[in-house]
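Morning!

As promised:
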Amino acid sequence: MRIACIGGGPAGLYFAISMKLRDAAHHVDVFERNRPDDTFGWGVVFSDQTVENLMANDLASGSVIRDEFAHWDDIDVHIRGQTIRSSGHGFIGIGRKRLLNILQERARELGVQLHFESEAGSDLDDWTAYDLVIAADGANSRIRDRYQQHLGVDIQVRRNKFIWLGTHKVFGAFTFAFEHLPEGWVWAHAYRFDDDLSTFIVEMEPETWDRLGFADMEQKAAIAWCESVFAKYLDGHSLMSNASHLRGSALWLNFRRIVCDRWFYRNLILLGDAAHTAHFSIGSGTKLALEDAIKLAEVLNRPGLAREDALQEYQAERNLEVLKLQNSARNSTEWFETLERYLDFEPIQFAYSLLTRSQRVSHENLRLRDKAWLEVVERWFQSKARGSPVNEPAPPMFAPYRLRELRLENRIVVSPMAMYSAEDGTPNDFHLVHYGTRAQGGAGLLYTEMTCVSADGRITPGCAGMYAPEHLSEWTRIVGFVHANSAAKICLQLGHSGPKGSTKVGWEGYDVPLDSGNWPVMAASDVPWSPNNQNPRPMTRADMDEVISQFVAAVRMGDEAGFDMCELHAAHGYLLSSFITPLTNKRADEYGGSLENRLRFPLEVFRAMRAAWPAAKPMSVRISANDWMGELGVTPSEAVLVGRAFTDAGADLIDVSAGQTWAECTPVYGRMFQTPFADQIRNEGKIATMAVGNIYETDHVNSILAAGRADLVAMARPHLVDPMWTLRAAAAQEYRDIAIPPQYLAGMTQLARNLKREQELAAALKA
Ligand SMILES: Cc1cc2nc3c(=O)[nH]c(=O)nc-3n(C[C@H](O)[C@H](O)[C@H](O)COP(=O)(O)OP(=O)(O)OC[C@H]3O[C@@H](n4cnc5c(N)ncnc54)[C@H](O)[C@@H]3O)c2cc1C
Ligand SMILES: Cc1cc2nc3c(=O)[nH]c(=O)nc-3n(C[C@H](O)[C@H](O)[C@H](O)COP(=O)(O)O)c2cc1C
């Protein structure tokens, strides 16, 4: 095959090597516009796994690269005069120039034709002498851009400004240094990659960059400025640029996130940064480029595999890897872009948040890396929660939490779940056993299902209510059992179904109208939930007054029943949510239009409830923090304002759910998928939040809490199949100080012993 590689960066060179290794008869020309030693950038970092992949592909270049790596284990986070050091992170780094020289040498040895100072054309008609044209010309690939309509190129320019510098200061640890200036925060990412060289990337928000006047500052002055701000980390060493040909502010970049739907068109194939980019803060761009090269060479040389099939396989396999990494990279990029949220954390928690920002590193990963450090975090978390120094480390999920006068034993919450098993709103023995068992399972707080404030406010005929004397007596029995037989506290979730009412019970079809016996429904506007649902009546002022009085009556009954806490359900497209989301609120009066207007009625309800609910008892509000409809609906940023409005009115906690407000919305589902909204509302709004949504492992819970992404963690479906989730989590983490019904003690002791034995066995097998 005759192959032209446009670009002699890591992707182009390593692909050329990988092709020649597999078949020396291939003719490969690499065209590079620069000279062999001109290279932008300083060092790159890899993981051990990447090095193993390189060794397996080409032992000769792989072992030279391996032998030249600088290794380090520690990460230092400098902030507010403190340095937080954690260890066990295992990075390896190499100079980009050195990496390219090793690859150039190996390519020459294998007979690749290298053409330096050779600007390659971006028209496929320039390349008719070749069977394949490889676009390995980096993130700014011209040939990719020329054929972008065939490749489905999506480029997102991220907001922060950064400059990639080098220094002779040798950093002993991967260093993150945050400095606060009158113009804003600036920070550096620094790491050693050679005996006497380190990369030093300076980053800041664009507003800070503007205020500092970098737009009109020459390169030399900008570098001198960075040297003075970070002088205390540089020990007298200077900072250097190796892109001195760039003038003015051109050295400052915005990261460009690139995704392509198709990685090939005619005989053009995208490779490395031309096909995708991953933010430098997770340091994986070069790894992806090299691994792309290996895979592409492998499929192109596999006997019997047709070209089209080979390229389909290349794209499918590599794209999956890239998407995984880009997902983590996006989390990491966003963390630095929303840094403001975390800057008032104490340094230890700030460092934890930084280390877990991509969500690839969790609480238990940190324990494996540096147990002693993680235990410092755990002790800090527990001491803060308990208000006095704690000597023994313990999982964050087992820290108590206070809401007004209510003390929760731990941070695990059984999320509200409709059971559709009441008759005329009256709970029964099913509910007693259901809630009783889950209370005995160890969670600190238990929510009831959405309990409706009127018969017409029910979702289904099976929904529980709080509007009749028999409801009060049955709920009193359930609350009494919970208090008498567990340490759990119990919260009454009150709601009104609005436009989603008069439907079948869950297992007969969600949101499907009843076959007979439907009752009329109302909402903010006459927007039905779906074409199959009733057209709701827009609420009149008289309707509003009636609903407010129903909520007040229900909250009073809730207090009488002995509930510890009360929640207003203002999420998921039900009555109050139908006001908050602009997708269903089409009113022209003071209850529609602006967010302030859309919140007016839900806040009237909330304030009336708060006034009727005892001051010592807390209240929460469940909201849908994202309508998953972009700017057409409620966005997470708007949800911060929604959360603030309710906390200003006296809410103690925002229960952060999302979606279910518009039948056609498209949630982006994944593990912990709604937690970013709890994080944003908590840390931008300075509000206590509860995270919920596909959280199912102890590790998720501990990571969320220790990173300050939420104050409480609710789980729904995990508790359906495992009411004892919290007790099991305590046994697995060898946590003994949990309230457990004495009748169940023996089971807990045995479970803890067996889990420990299993862990020891697994460790022995691994060893
Ligand atoms: C600040 C920063 C820090 C980074 N840190 C890391 C890190 O720690 N670890 C990591 O793995 N990755 C890191 N990266 C990413 C890494 O640099 C890239 O992912 C990697 O270089 C991709 O390799 P590539 O060969 O696809 O593209 P490039 O390295 O960009 O190579 C493309 C080559 O094509 C040449 N070229 C372009 N157009 C033409 C043309 N028309 N004719 C001829 N030649 C052309 C260019 O001169 C260049 O040499 C970082 C990136 C940035 C911006
Ligand atoms: C069977 C079932 C019933 C639910 N009923 C309610 C409810 O009554 N009120 C409410 O706010 N959320 C309700 N939800 C949503 C859950 O509280 C929770 O937000 C959602 O299931 C995501 O959490 P999970 O991934 O832990 O299940 C229900 C969920 C399930 C599975």
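DSSP finds 25 helices and 30 strands in the chain.

Hope this helps with the figure draft.
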